Amino acid sequence: MWRWLWTRVVRAAAGPRSACSRRGCSNSSSTSSSAPAAGATIFALSSGQGRCGVAVIRASGPASGHALRSLTAARDLPPARRASLRLLSDPSSGEPLDRALVLWFPGPHSFTGEDCVEFHVHGGPAVVSGVLQALGSVPGLRPAEAGEFTRRAFAHGKLDLTEVEGLADLIHAETEAQRRQALRQLDGELGQLCHGWAETLTKALAHVEAYIDFGEDDNLEEDVLSEAHKDVRALEAALDAHLRDARRGQRLRSGAHVVVAGPPNAGKSSLVNLLSQKPVSIVSPEPGTTRDVLETPVDLAGFPALLSDTAGLRDGVGPVEQEGVRRAQERLQQADLVLAVLDVSDLGSSASRHFLASVVGPRCSLSPGERQQRLLLVLNKADLLPGAGQDPEPRLPPHLLLSCLTGAGLDDLLEALRTELAALCGDPAAGPPLLTRARHLHHLRACRDALAHFRPARDLALAAEALRVARGHLTRLTGGGGTDELLELIFRDFCVGK
Description:
- By secondary structure, the protein is of the alpha/beta class.
- It has helices spanning about 1-15, 20-25, 65-70, 125-135, 150-155, 160-170, 175-185, 190-215, 225-245, 245-255, 270-275, 320-335, 350-365, 410-425, 440-450, 460-475, 485-490; strands at about 40-45, 55-60, 85-90, 95-105, 115-120, 140-145, 255-260, 295-300, 305-310, 335-345, 375-380, 400.
């Protein structure tokens, strides 16, 4: 019985039994074009462009060893995975190019799974150009395309697709939180989670098919179907938990939308310049200086954010300012976090009272669970207060005192921003893996939708098909059965040499 059940597990892992597979016919399109071309050896500069102390040039493919011998005029390859000092020479003319460290990585124990070699040369442009030209003259070598090294690692099973995406995010990470999240994904946490879920569905599918074929057999345990039903419902709950948190990972990767809003001359532009540490917005005592929405990506307390400076909210005196106010109100509705800025010395003005009533009040009156947005109320120009530490208006909602002129209160504001952004983006150092891309969200939603049709009490054949569809989405999330168009979209984010 158990031998038969194991056969079912293997069959379930292979996917549905199509008419073609049952007849034993072959499919000429089964070979993925994502695999590297046979016999092709690629090379590229893997470190950054420009003058530097050391530049890294790598090659990958079956002719890597020949390329290393050609440039070092050595008959024997150096010890694997150990740095060796060698004189590099042009194989055509014998002219010395550089004295460099070389590292030999025989496949499959390399990044790409192929034979690889790295040349750590001096980073002058002439040295790098000379070594690249020498490699180009070696038969069987060609320049690499963008992302081709990583694509070969994927094709040889060194990385799954979620790990590839984690590597891309790590290369592009600009904040501490992005680095931590990308490193967790590169380490395979999201892929391992999806593999575990796929194994659960494989086991459930094997049990359902066993019941279809041997439902009346005395050798089949009575609770086989109920165990499958229990596992599927537990998986549904886990998927629901991750789908509820989906926006957090996407915010962490792309940046939370932080909108700075308030009445004219409250200091919004000064705050944007202070947080971005550069003159993004024009600062002037004249009301209505900012007419359009000015956006800048910033690192706020270690989290990525898109900071938007908006026009002062008031009844505009002209059509241009009125349009600016309309755009400001539109961005307020789209914000993940609102920085509401008021002039602490002008709280009694009609503009400040209207802003408190129309923007701050409605958002603060809701319970945390009902709020669609987070809000921090900042009272700027605290340097104009007569007494240090004096609360100008205790009846206001919770607020922070700040002086953009002196910087007083900035540390408290950054700590508050860190708390708010951690809630919006999630903690990249703890908790379950985050869903950072729309592709992840799509496949998990499709998996969850398929499991909603799993009703073995009605029709076992349809229940089994629901499990196959759900498992297929988990497989595609980690790279199995991915289309060439999807792979091109992902790998185009990589630079040449990676």
